[in-house]
Amino acid sequence: MRALLFFVFIILIFVAIRFTLKRINQISAEADSEERESAPVSDDVETMVACEVCQVNLPKSEALVIKLSENAEPHFACSEAHLKTLSNKLN
Ligand SMILES: [Zn+2]
């Protein structure tokens, strides 16, 4: 009878350890997938450009761009008005 109780006790400990290990794996897997989900966000950080008239920084996608020629460096402006000022300055 004592041997049986001991055997049951061992099995309980084994089950408890397995459950704990499983839980730890689950938690680290969750942390990994969270990391993977948040990683693209840092890749999405947009290049900021400064308006050449007022020096305001804005995302490149929102900036207005002038290129004097196909190979010329682009010039950025924050608004239509500054785009006009900039093109007057450049020409
Ligand atoms: Zn501006």
Explain what the structure shows.
By secondary structure, the protein is α+β, with helices and mostly antiparallel strands. The chain has two domains: 1-43; 48-90, Ribosomal Protein L24e, Chain: T, CATH 2.30.170. Helices cover 58% and strands 13% of the residues. The chain has helices at 2-43, 80-90; strands at residues 48-50, 57-59, 64-66, 75-77. Strands 1-2 form a two-stranded antiparallel sheet. It has a two-stranded antiparallel sheet with strand order 3-4. The longest helix is centred in the first third of the chain and has 42 residues, at 2-43. It is rod-shaped and about 100 Å long. It starts with a helix and ends with a helix. The mean pLDDT is 89. The structure holds zinc ion. The site of zinc ion has 8 residues, from loops.
Brief synopsis:
The protein contains two helices and four strands; from the N terminus they run αββββα.
Tell me the strand percentage band: 5-15%
Mean pLDDT: 89
Give unreliable regions as ranges. none
Bulk shape: rod-shaped
What is the count of DSSP helices, taking H or I runs of 4+ residues? 2
Specify the helix fraction band. 55-70%
> Structural class given helices, strands, pairing?
alpha+beta
Cα radius of gyration in angstroms: 31 Å
Number of domains: 2
Query: How do the helices and strands follow one another from N- to C-terminus?
Result: HEEEEH
The spatial strand order of the largest sheet comes to 1-2
Biggest pleated-sheet summary: 2 strands, antiparallel
**Total strand segments:** 4
Q: How far is the first residue's CA from the last residue's CA?
A: 100 Å
Ligand set = zinc ion
